[in-house]
Each structure stands twice: as structure tokens, then as C-alpha cells.
């Protein structure tokens, strides 16, 4: 691809990446991860916007669909983010829910939702969480993957704190450095930090175009594309029940 920024040449050659576990607690990394993984913390988070750019009713629609996920494990505690895809179904990362004794899901207005089940993908860093209680809102999933230069907004709960929206664009695509068999993933310059794992990446119309799952050593974010997400949701064998921690 011509015109690729110099900072991304390292992405094409092999990205330095780390999973975005919450509260600075990094979960065990996959076996296929490169040996030169290093942590990196971006900066420059923006405040939520009420301009109405993302949806007809503005920021309210965005905050209603995002959730904070608290993973109480056997001797560990971490936080992550997720988003609704229907009234009782959330999408997040596999590493957000891994080694869990219990999962606690909370909404923008402080409600705690009871979790009925969770399952994780064998291929991508994705997980599905079912809730007994109804979720406030869910976005549409875009019909196509974004292209280089398209706008991106990442909606999540970094550090398990307040809901934050960060803006950027799609800057490239690359072969997944954490799971070689996943295939192509998207690279964006929208800043993220621990706790942002599982956040929805939205286009300018508020539609889901990807799921945040990692960041590079130069501060870029990696997204599972919406096409991969939809393919796996359509495959009955793609997810297996989450085993309890021990």
C-alpha cells in the first residue's frame, strides 16, 4: 500500500502489541504472541461530545450501548469494556472475561445487570456475554468494513472509570500479530488504554465497524473488523462456554 506512514512500517513487519486489560492487570498472553511485547500508554483522551455526530439523539445513544465489565477472578480483578448488539447480548474481548469467577456488568446510568452466560471465541479475541436484564440500547453493525482514512470513534471505560469517546481514523490494516490465524485486522490512531478492551469502534454514523482488542507500541489501536465479528456470530461452533477460573 503506497503512502503508508513511516510509523506503520513496523506494523507491516510485525507489530509490538499488548492486550488492553483493565486496571493495569495484564492477562496471560496467547502462545502465538511475539516475544518482544512491550506495554505502551497513549495520551490525549478527549471528553465525550454532545454534538450529535454519532447518532440522531447524540451522545445519549452512544453511552447507552456501552457497558463496563468487571472480571472478578480467582485471586485477580480487572476491568474492560463491551457493547450491546441486542437487548440481552454483549460483545467484548476474550481476555476481558478469561479466568473469571464472576462477571459484573454495569450501564452508563449505574445499573448492574445480571449475567446469565458467557462464551469465548477460539479464533479471535472475542467473547459473547448474555444478560438476564435488558440492555438500554444497541447500535447497528455497519454493512462494510471501513477503508483507510475513514473516521473512527472508540467508546469505552478506560481504567474502569467514566465513559470516554476518543476520535481517530483508520490508518492501515495488518495481519493480526497476536493470533496469526485470525487474518487481517484494522489499525486506528484513536487512543486507548487499559480498560478499553472490548470497546466498540464506530463510524461517523454510529455504526459498529470493529472491536478494540490491543494496541501497538507506538500508541495505535488494533480492531477486530466487523466482518470477522459477523462471520463468527453466524457460526454456531465459533464460541464455546467460558470455563470458571480455578
From TrEMBL:
InterPro entries: Peptidase_S1_PA (IPR009003), Peptidase_S1C (IPR001940). Residues 38-57 are annotated as: Disordered. This is Trypsin-like peptidase.
Amino acid at each position: 500500500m503506497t503512502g503508508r506512514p513511516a510509523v506503520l512500517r513496523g506494523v507491516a513487519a510485525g507489530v509490538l502489541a499488548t492486550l488492553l486489560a483493565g486496571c493495569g492487570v495484564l492477562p496471560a498472553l496467547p502462545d502465538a504472541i511475539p516475544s518482544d511485547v512491550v506495554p505502551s500508554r497513549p495520551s490525549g483522551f478527549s471528553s465525550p461530545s454532545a454534538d450529535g455526530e454519532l447518532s440522531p439523539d447524540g451522545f445519549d445513544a452512544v453511552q447507552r450501548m456501552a457497558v463496563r465489565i468487571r472480571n472478578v477472578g480467582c485471586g485477580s480483578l480487572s476491568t474492560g469494556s463491551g457493547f450491546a448488539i441486542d437487548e440481552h447480548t454483549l460483545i467484548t474481548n476474550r481476555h476481558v472475561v478469561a479466568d473469571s469467577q464472576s462477571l459484573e456488568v454495569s450501564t452508563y446510568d449505574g445499573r448492574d445487570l445480571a449475567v446469565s452466560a458467557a462464551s469465548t471465541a477460539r479464533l479471535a479475541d472475542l467473547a459473547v456475554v448474555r444478560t438476564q436484564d435488558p440492555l438500554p440500547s444497541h447500535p447497528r453493525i455497519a454493512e462494510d468494513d471501513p477503508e483507510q482514512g475513514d473516521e473512527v470513534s472508540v467508546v469505552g471505560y478506560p481504567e474502569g472509570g467514566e465513559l470516554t469517546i476518543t476520535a481517530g481514523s483508520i490508518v492501515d490494516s495488518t495481519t493480526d500479530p497476536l493470533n496469526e490465524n485470525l487474518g487481517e485486522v484494522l489499525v486506528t490512531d484513536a487512543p486507548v488504554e487499559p480498560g478499553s478492551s472490548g470497546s466498540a469502534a464506530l463510524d461517523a454514523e454510529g455504526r459498529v465497524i470493529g472491536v478494540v482488542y490491543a494496541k501497538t507500541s507506538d500508541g495505535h489501536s488494533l480492531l477486530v473488523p466487523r466482518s470477522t465479528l459477523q462471520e463468527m456470530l453466524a457460526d454456531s461452533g465459533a464460541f464455546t462456554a467460558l470455563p470458571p477460573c480455578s
